[in-house]
Amino acid sequence: MKVPFVNLRLQHEDIMDKIHLAIDQVFEEDPYVLGPAVARFEKAAAKMLGAPHVVGVNSGTDALLLSLKALGIGPGDEVVLPTFTFMSVAEVIVRLGARPVFVDVDPLTYNMAIDSVTQAVTPKTRAIVAVHMFGYGCDMAQLLQLANAHGIFLIEDVAQAMGARIGNKYLGTMGIAGCFSFYPTKNLGAVGDAGMVVTHNDGVADRLRQLRDHGRAPDGSFPEIGFNSRLDPLQAAILKIKLDELEESIADRVENARFYDSLLAETDLVLPEFFDRGEHTYNYYTIQAEERDALRNFLTEREIGTAVYYPRPLHLEPSMSYLGYKEGDFPVAELLCSRVLSLPVFPGMKRKEVEEVALSIHEFLAMRAAQATQ
Ligand SMILES: Cc1ncc(COP(=O)(O)O)c(C=O)c1O
User: What pLDDT shows up at residue 274?
Assistant: First the structure.
């Protein structure tokens, strides 16, 4: 049985009529740019998250870029981020002329290791970007304490963890800015690029609104240089419909993950770990396998889709070489890059499909065990 890594079409099958109506409504409404569809989505997202301000932008990358810029981060500043994550976090820091300072991660949750963050803070540090990896939140209590003690900003990257809570608070609502991506494969996915920033700070919200619209102030003047990074109204209309389905689709991901947990429990693979401090939303179900590449090839031959997030830590990417990091600087992240494998866990995935993936993994492990005793 073929099992894709993701099946995005499935997410829309049952809501296509609603989506068509919402799109028709956009055509009826003027202005198209920053019009009512964007306002409706921002209002709905703010209500769900219990946040005073939501600013829709055109991608998760720009959510990060505009947030750092709104906080005044620029040349001479250092920003702490995990080395085991997606490039866009480092990219925006560099684009603003600031310096990315990488830290290692926890080998079980994949989130930034608190002691590593503590060691990375210097008098030049202006912000920490806490990336909530694969759908599970960083230890926000500890990070907030650390940020407050040093008077630095804590920005949350919620690209992979929309809808996850710590206690009764949603991720993205605890730092000065919560940056979300609606890249199609995320927990809440658009049909194209989209993103948003959530903040409880009125001044930051005003600056974000200005920055996403060329730096234009409410009086029509341009007090600063900004960007064209407005959330597209068609994406906003689709996202508003999909927001209503978010809880259900996360429940589906969690159910698939629990099923994998039970089917793979007896193996020596490292399964995704989470602790009482918060919910896991399984944007990715990521395991660790010693023979990751061989396992991946075996699954590919069976037409089972998998992905490697991430094959290289950021500090070893060629575009970051000017920073002077070297192999061995962050041993946990470096090891993880050779071992991690993300399995299909998408909403709407059938139990039979989860079983097929798990069975194939068992077959691979049994084959390897037999070869080892020969
Ligand atoms: C952790 C993380 N941060 C930022 C981004 C960037 O989001 P986007 O692709 O919407 O620009 C992504 C995903 O693509 C991500 O996984």
Answer: 77
Give the amino acid at 89: V
> Average pLDDT for residues 223-237, to the nearest whole number?
98
Residue 195: CB partners within 8 Å, gap ≥ 6? 56, 57, 58, 59, 60, 61, 62, 63, 159, 179, 180, 181, 182, 231
The two structure tokens encoding residue 78? 């250092």
Q: Whose CA is nearest to atom 3 of ligand 1?
A: 159
Helix (H) or strand (E) holding 99: strand 99-103
Q: Which atom of ligand 1 is nearest to the CA of 182?
A: 10
Q: For a substitution probing ligand 1, which of 87, 93, 171, 181 has the most ligand atoms within 8 Å of its CB?
A: 181
| Domains of the chain by start residue, with CATH | 8-243 (3.40.640.10), 246-373 (3.90.1150.10)
DSSP-H helix ranges across 124-201: 140-150
* Alpha carbon of 373 to ligand 1 centroid (Å): 44
Q: With cut-offs at 50, 70 and 90, classify the pLDDT of residue 276.
A: confident
How many CB atoms within 10 Å of residue 201? 15
Q: Cβ atoms within 10 A of the Cβ of 40, count?
A: 18
- Which residues have CB under 6 Å of ligand 1? 59-61, 85-86, 88-89, 131, 157, 159-160, 181, 183, 193, 195
Q: pTM of the entire structure?
A: 0.97
Query: What percentage of residues in the chain have a pLDDT greater than 70?
Result: 100
Q: Which residues pair with 343 in a beta bridge?
A: 285
Q: Where are the alpha helices (DSSP H) in the chain?
A: 8-13, 16-28, 36-49, 60-70, 87-95, 114-120, 140-150, 202-211, 233-243, 246-263, 292-301, 331-339, 351-373
Burial letters 175-191, b for 16+ CB under 10 A, else e: bbbbbbbbbeebbbbbb
For the CA of 64, the nearest atom of ligand 1: 4
pLDDT of residue 124 exceeding 80: yes
Paired tokens of 191: 């049909």
Give percent of the chain with pLDDT exceeding 90.
Answer: 97
Question: Residue 197 belongs to what H/E stretch?
Answer: strand 195-199
Cα angle 341, 298, 330 (rounded to 5 degrees) comes to: 30
Q: Quickly list DSSP for 2-22.
A: -B-S--HHHHHHTTHHHHHHH
Which atom of ligand 1 is the closest one to the Cα of 193? Answer: 10
Would you say residue 120 has pLDDT above 90? yes
